[in-house]
Amino acid sequence: MKLEVFLKIMRRALQGSDFVGRTYLVGGVVRDLLLGKDDFTDFDLCVEKRYGGLKLGSYLKTRLNPQSYEVFPRFGTVRMKLKDIEIDLVQTRCESYTKGRRFPRIRYCPISEDVWRRDFTINSLYLELFSESILDPCGRGKTDLQDRLIRTTRDPVLVFSEDALRMLRALRFVSTLDFDLEAETYAAMRSLAANVQRLSAKAQCQELNKMNFESRRLKLLLKESGIQDYLK
User: Fold this and answer.
1) Is residue 205 one of the residues assigned to a domain?
2) In this model, does residue 106 exceed pLDDT 90?
3) Can you tell me the distance from the alpha carbon of 123 to that of 108, in angstroms, rounded to the nearest whole number?
4) What is the rounded distance in angstroms from the CA atom of residue 13 to the CA atom of residue 58?
5) Sorting pLDDT into bands at 50, 70 and 90, what band is 32?
């Protein structure tokens, strides 16, 4: 679906509600939009409002009549299918991790804090649905996009220690976007490569299937980072 069409549907549904000015597209759509893409199959919406994802999901369900509708109460998220697209809805939030566990505990936080739970700076841009203004609360998203760099939003050792899948995601973006890894991000990946073996075979496979193995850069990084040795 063209972004212009999606925004028109959302604006029509949300007009006059208290979701106006609080609802943002975030993640891959905003990144890829700035890279020149305008047709998408998945949209991630975050709402700067307590329980915003659940409330927006309930609100849209009665107005858009989606083909499917799933609620994930543990994370305060909703996933719906509408025509040929999928939409994920979530409140802006903070996350805290317990050692040895991939999935965090969550609580509501504004965008200024939500941004730090995101993996990479290029995935941390927010587009407000009505004004189409783009926020870059981490301060590096637009610059790294221009410089074609994959950089974590926080200390990469901490980011990758929280969830080893993020290292595979970094390699996926290197291969599909033809970007480079920022030096500290790459150094952290090399030092924590063994953590990838803690991921299930399913989780590894899902991420590997999204990679572009035609990329010479990917093949080199898989080998030199050591991650290749820990894949199942």
Assistant:
1) yes
2) no
3) 20
4) 12
5) very high
Listed residues 138, 163, 194: the one ending a domain:
138
User: What is the C-alpha to C-alpha distance for residues 147 and 159, in angstroms, rounded to an integer?
Assistant: 21
Q: What's the CATH code of the domain at 90?
A: 3.30.460.10
Domain extent at residue 29:
3-138
Secondary structure of 46-114 in the HEC alphabet? Answer: EECCCCHHHHHHHHHHHHHCCCEEEEECCCCEEEEEECCEEEEEEECEEEECCCCCCCCEEEECCHHHH
Structure tokens at 82: 């509408």
CA 103 to chain centre: 15
DSSP state of 216: H
- Separation CA 27–CA 17 (nearest Å): 24
pLDDT tens digits for range 130-152:
999 999 999 999 999 999 999 99
Q: How far does CA 14 lie from the centroid of its chain?
A: 23
Q: How are the residues of the chain apportioned to helix, strand and coil, as percentages rounded to the nearest 5?
A: 45, 20, 35
Terminal-residue alpha carbon distance, the chain: 36
Name the pTM for this structure: 0.93
- Residue 19's CB: how many other CB atoms inside 10 A? 22
Q: Which of 46-55, 60-69, 97-106 has the lowest mean pLDDT?
A: 97-106
pLDDT of 100 > 90? The answer is no
User: What is the percent of the chain where pLDDT is above 90?
Assistant: 91
